[in-house]
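User: Hello, can you help with two protein structures?

Assistant: Certainly.
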Amino acid sequence: MEVVNAIGRRKAAVARVYVSEGTGKITINKRDLDKYFPSTILQYVVKQPLNKLEAAEKYDIKINLGGGGFKGQSEAARLAIARALIKINPEDKPALRAEGFVTRDPRTVERKKPGQPKARKRFQFSKR
């Protein structure tokens, strides 16, 4: 099997994933998964599509992550891994779709409007 690549985005984070056959090693920005994401919850989020398909020990995964915070980065990686697994085996798509791993979360930060301190907040109104 050759290397399969996919891209995942969430908020401002972008994850480029390269999946090849191997022993289940996940490398993010040339660091191990547990070094990059010390939190076990975020490690779990990244591994969710692999655990769903029971393919955690089948593939070696190399991820380039950039932008955003750690939560957005972990969810971007999850989406990219799910997309790569679908490229490898299209029959897995319904299982991953049912768990919500294929849907790109469209929620991003709302832009700041001119004449306001933030996106929705207004300056204090003064009648006089």
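That covers the first. Now for the second protein you mentioned:
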Amino acid sequence: MEQINAIGRRKAAVARVYMSEGKGNITINSREFKDYFPNPQLQYVVEQPLNLLDVKGKYDIKTMLDGGGVKGQAEALRLGITRALIKINPEYKSKLKEHGFVTRDPREVERKKPGQPKARKKFQFSKR
């Protein structure tokens, strides 16, 4: 099997995923997966599609993560891994879709408007 490429996005985070057959090593920005995401909850989020399909030790995953915060990056990586798995075997799609991993979460931060302190918040109104 050759290398499979996929992209996952969430908020401001972008994950470029390169997946190939191997021993199950996950490398993020040339760092070990458990060093990059020390929080077990985020590790779980990233490994969800692999655990669901029982392919955790079958593929080596190299990832370039950019932008956003840790949670957005973890969810972007989850989407990237999901898309790569679907490219490897299209039969995986129905099971992954059932658990909501195929859909990209489109929610983004709303821009700040001029004359306001934030996107929706207004400065205090003074009658006099």
